[in-house]
Amino acid sequence: MIGSLSGKVLRIDGVTALIDVNGVGYEVDMPVSSLGSLKIGESCFVYTQHIVREDAQILYGFLSVVERSLFRILIKVNGVGPKMALAVLSTFKVDEFIQIVISEQSKSLEQIPGVGKKTAERMVVELKDNLKKFAQSGSDISVDLSSVSESQSDSFNDAIAAMTALGYRESDAIKYVKMVVAKDRSLSTQQIIVAALALISKGKS
Q1: Residue of 94, 88, 6 lying closest to 45 (CA atoms)
Q2: Can you name the residues that pair with 18 across neighbouring β-strands?
Q3: Are 100 and 170 in contact (CB under 8 A)?
Q4: pLDDT at residue 70 greater than cutoff 80
Q5: Contact 132, 74 (CB under 8 A)
Q6: Residue 82 in contact with residue 59, Cβ under 8 Å?
């Protein structure tokens, strides 16, 4: 199996990059966000997933091992193939997607090309538990997903629960709590709630 490629970018066409590795050109399908970081004529390193089908062999490329790990989890979901998994990674950052699924915001997933209501709901049901473990794992994934760790902390979750109990929509609670925690992850639950409510009040003023 081809696990990674290191070479020069020869061409970028749609979602495919042509990468020259010692004189051999590999066509690699990648998330749009990753392709934006590549430059024709410059060297690159990508992690890859080699998919073998009856009619084709396709390489999918990722700039981080975390993206590839999420891709591997996604293609195990019923009805989610490699193309849709690539669309997920083109639409959301890894931490954003994990937070959306864990907080069961299936409606947000409908903005992914090719994903309708039923597929979005199925993603949430089938992925929620796996993505919690994915984000909390003690492997190198947890290091790369440090930005997600706040969504798993007691303070973060307690603040969300408290704000929804006060009558705020969960999506709004997550939005403002995340803004607060992004600035200071050492805050207590009470401090997070106070700061989040202040942001909400400021937004309404």
Answers
A1: 6
A2: 11, 27
A3: no
A4: yes
A5: no
A6: no
